[in-house]
Amino acid sequence: MIAERLKLARKRQKITQEKLAELANTTKSTISNYENSYSSPSADMILTLAEVLNTTTDYLLGRTDQPDIENAEKKYNSIDEIVKDKDMHQWLFDLIEKNPESLERIKKLSEVLQEEHKKEK
Questions:
Q1: Cβ pair 5, 57 in contact under 8 A
Q2: What is the pLDDT of residues 18-73, one digit of tens each?
Q3: Which domain holds residue 15?
């Protein structure tokens, strides 16, 4: 998985293996070996490659199909965090404005999810 994701991320940034190697402080042959599955990068190298390629380690590892950092799945720990997220806040506001009864449905869904979460613990 990492071989193909690394190659895709590199091509998205429109950089060569040589340039990626330079930016990641390694060699072109090392990058080539990663992209051809002849070897695997260390955890530290995966972090470096993700940073250099402006992507996430989760994308490189195949845990998400979203390569963009800005659009990576956001996780919220409270409703306050959701409200503080400008995009989520706007989405919620638009939803409620178009369909006022959706607020009650959202509240009920939230309660159900909280109960399920308590049962899991």
A1: no
A2: 999 999 999 999 999 999 999 999 999 999 999 999 998 988 998 888 777 765 55
A3: 2-61
Looking at the fold, whether 53 and 7 belong to one and the same domain comes out as yes
Question: 112 lies in a domain?
Answer: yes
- Neighbouring residues of 68: CB distance < 8 A, sequence distance ≥ 6: 55
The 3-class secondary structure across the chain, one letter per residue, is CHHHHHHHHHHHCCCCHHHHHHHCCCCHHHHHHHHCCCCCCCHHHHHHHHHHCCCCHHHHHCCCCCCCCCCCCCCCCCHHHHHHCHHHHHHHHHHHHHCCCHHHHHHHHHHHHHHHHHHHC
Global model pTM greater than 0.70: no
When divided into structural domains, the chain yields a total of 2
Check whether 7 has a pLDDT greater than 70.
yes
Question: Measured between alpha carbons, how far is 46 from 51 in angstroms, rounded to an integer?
Answer: 9
Average pLDDT, the chain: 84
